[in-house]
Specification:
Order of helices and strands: HHHHHHHHHHH
Structural class: mainly alpha
Number of domains: 1
Number of helices: 11
CATH topology: Tetracycline Repressor, domain 2
Number of strands: 0
CATH architecture: Orthogonal Bundle
Shape: elongated
Strand content: under 5%
Length: 211
């Protein structure tokens, strides 16, 4: 029994190593430039060991995105337990997304998969659909609660936020702007336009932002 448990634990550890390696490469190099051999080498696993766990690169991409969705869902669950107003939850989510691009390769890989492969196969937009849906829900909740400034329709506000997040990731990845730009800080400044009262609580979302 003990031997079986040990083997299962070792197999799970290997699988996680492969997913971590794949996420790093997909985020850094993109889908086309990342091969199964590259993933195995990055993880320090034999090619045979890789194929024992994953039959194809697409299967790995699916699991990388699912892992990113888990990161998102855990964040959402924690924030909803805190009973924050919808607009503040939205700001916190946007700040978290931009932060994850720098600290969580699975999220970064998922953004890049959508950008590079989303128009070819909808399987590559799993994570993006998950966070798009969350943004739309938060904006709708904020609109219903009277938290949004001005008369902009909630769909317009949601689209603005989505385009801003996707655009920031794309321009940094393309080298158009300084790769060391603080994406999370840049995005949180958007709240000055959406919610004029935001400077009063911005510091709680992103320390260092001043009104």
């Amino acid at each position: 029994m003990g031997t079986t448990v040990t083997k299962q634990a070792r197999a799970e550890q290997t699988r996680l190593l492969l997913l971590d390696a794949a996420a790093v490469l997909l985020h850094r190099d993109g889908y086309a430039a990342t091969s199964m051999v590259d993933i195995a080498r990055e993880a320090g696993i034999t090619k045979g060991g890789l194929y024992f766990h994953f039959s194809s690169k697409d299967e790995i991409c699916d699991e990388v995105q699912q892992a990113a969705v888990t990161v998102l869902n855990e964040h959402v669950e924690h924030r909803e337990q805190a009973s924050l107003p919808a607009l503040r939850r939205l700001a916190v989510l946007g700040h978290a997304l931009m932060g994850w691009l720098e600290t969580e390769p699975k999220v970064g890989a998922s953004f890049r998969l959508t950008r590079e492969m989303g128009s070819k196969d909808e399987r590559y937009v799993a994570f993006s659909r998950a966070w798009f849906a969350r943004v739309r829900q938060y904006v709708a909740d904020a609109h219903e609660a009277g938290e949004l400034a001005g008369e902009a329709p909630s769909d317009t506000v949601a689209l603005l936020l989505v385009v801003t997040c996707v655009g920031l990731e794309a321009v940094v990845a393309s080298g158009t702007i300084d790769p060391d730009v603080d994406l999370a800080r840049t995005l949180i400044e958007l709240w000055r336009l959406i919610d004029p009262a935001s400077p009063g609580w911005l510091s709680a979302v992103a320390p260092g932002i001043r009104g």
